[in-house]
Predict the structure.
Amino acid sequence: MCYNAEAQTKASIKYAKHKSFDANIIKQLQLKLDLISYTPYYQVSGFAHPRILVFTDREPLEPKLFHWGLIPSWIKDEEGAKKIINQTLNARGETIYEKPAFRTSAKSKRCLVYLDAFYEHHHLNGKTFPFRIAMKDDSPMAIAGLWEEWANPKGSGEIISTFTIVTTVGNSIMAKVHNNPKAEGPRMPVIIPKDKQDEWLDIKADKEVIQSLIKPFDGSLLEYHTVGKILGKAAIGNKPEVENKVKYQEIDWV
DNA sequence: CCAGACGTTGTT
DNA sequence: GTCTGG
DNA sequence: CCAGACGTTGTT
DNA sequence: GTCTGG
């Protein structure tokens, strides 16, 4: 769950405003985005390992560009990194304090990823239909993430910073939309409500507090609709119109 | 002890 | 049907 | 996770 | 780095 995202900078700018940063800081954030030539992602696959803006617990006022797909610090070489990075796009919230790949990050390397939306597929009669899920009020979704730094021991010493998206049990909306017959139970990304976002980024927060934040988001605050193809040869690509509603004959409930 | 893994995903 | 690549 | 391949042979 | 399996 949650392998396809919309990550325009507008979500991060809204975050900055929510945090009551003064105009100067917001301006600096925009300058910084220009400086690093941030590409707005209207729709991007995690498997492409795009660099997305994240706010870390270490520097919550200094957003960073990290690659999607967490590479644990103990990975020994490029081959190992390539292998694991496609398997750590998501982290099961239930086990982040146990899994070797995530536990150090769970304790002290948490982050928030402000997404405008995420995409999932509905399965029907052997076909798939992409859905876009976003907040009804168009506010950014603060997605719980973990981050890590990796330097190839056999490399130049360059540090590659990466992140993963924490998932939890899916709510009723996900149960309806994301019905892959092969999966083991509805999952969804952890969305942190506004009043809890500082807690997720609090380095001093203990395990119990963090775990209490890992739960399904209120489905009544989310909207969803079918969109054009986002994967494969027929994919629309990274264009603004991917978020537009597209009606499918077979789906009569949206 | 050494070698190898270390991860994710809707059963309506 | 099942595996690999992204 | 979904999309696409899944095979062989002497060349373009 | 740390744990599990053999």
Summary: The domain at 4-123+138-221 of chain A is CATH 3.90.1680.10 (hypothetical protein yedk fold).
